[in-house]
Specification:
By secondary structure, the protein is α/β, with parallel strands linked by helices. It has one domain: NAD(P)-binding Rossmann-like Domain (Rossmann fold). Helix content is 41%, strand content 16%. It contains 10 helices and 7 strands. It has a 7-stranded parallel β-sheet with strand order 3-2-1-4-5-6-7, with helices on both faces. The chain is globular. The mean pLDDT is 94. GO terms for molecular function: 3-alpha-hydroxysteroid 3-dehydrogenase [NAD(P)+] activity.
Length: 260
């Protein structure tokens, strides 16, 4: 499906990023991996901290031109400080994407890993709008203090980072259509990766209640094929879409919300 293509994958060292690298290579693609931790999962590797603007700018300067797609998979869990969560999960992703678009090939695809945690963005529109007025160069720590995110229970900073990502993806559905560059996001439910324990710790009883309705947590092998599809030619009429791969959890939430 992606034979002969070249893709950049962030978060390449573990979890969904590592599995996406493996699958894309199996499909015949060349993979350029990005992570804070060195990895042999990719054909080429670049070390970068996606919460650091200088590190992102250095990365963009070093990356080759002409890649056929970008998979933004790197992220940090809700147990991290609110500033770090927003910087890596949204503001750093945003900065990297905007900076790298001029280097992508015409017809390239961008796939952003969001989350079921972003599902409730319509109920948080005002805060999402405020978050989207901030960038990685701004006072993210000050924004977190003003919004009360430092002491918020239940991983609010993580939820906000994914809500903003879904909305930003939707907003940019046609931004680069003169070059046929598309952008979509993928929203997994709970996935059995090294950070699953962080989610269970943060969400507590809420997580236990949600898991009662699922047959099992997701696996990286459930999510990576959706990322690979979003990067492929088969997904070129998806624009600004949010592809849910969550074991039916979003359907469960909607059914309950509308009392079906």
């Amino acid at each position: 499906m992606n034979n002969g293509k070249t893709f950049i994958v962030t978060g390449a060292a573990s979890g969904i990023g590592a599995e996406t690298c493996r699958l894309l290579k199996e499909q015949g693609a060349t993979v350029i991996g990005v992570d804070r931790d060195p990895t042999g999962n990719a054909d080429r590797f670049f070390e970068a901290d996606l919460g650091d603007p200088a590190s992102i700018d250095t990365l963009v300067a070093e990356l080759p031109e002409g890649a056929d797609g970008l998979a933004n998979i790197a992220g940090v869990p809700p147990t991290r400080a609110a500033e770090a969560v927003l910087k890596v999960n949204f503001y750093g992703l945003q900065r990297l994407t905007l900076a790298i678009v001029p280097k992508l090939a015409d017809g390239a695809s961008i796939a952003n890993l969001a989350s079921l945690a972003g599902f409730g963005w319509p109920n948080a529109v005002d805060q999402v709008k405020r978050a989207m007025k901030v960038s990685l160069d701004d006072d993210v720590a000050g924004f977190c203090r003003a919004e009360g995110l430092d002491n918020a229970e239940g991983g609010r900073s993580y939820f906000l980072s994914k809500e903003a990502l879904i909305v930003w993806t939707m907003q940019n559905r046609w931004t680069w259509r003169d070059r046929n560059i598309t952008m979509n996001c993928i929203s997994p439910g709970p996935v059995d990766t090294p950070i699953l324990g962080d989610f269970l710790q943060t969400l507590g009883e809420r997580a236990k209640e949600d898991r009662k309705h699922m047959d099992r947590p997701g696996r990286p092998q459930d999510v990576a094929p959706v990322v690979a599809f979003a990067l492929s030619e088969h997904a070129k009429w998806f624009r600004g879409a949010n592809l849910t791969v969550d074991g039916g959890m979003s359907g469960h939430i909607l059914s309950n919300f509308h009392q079906f």
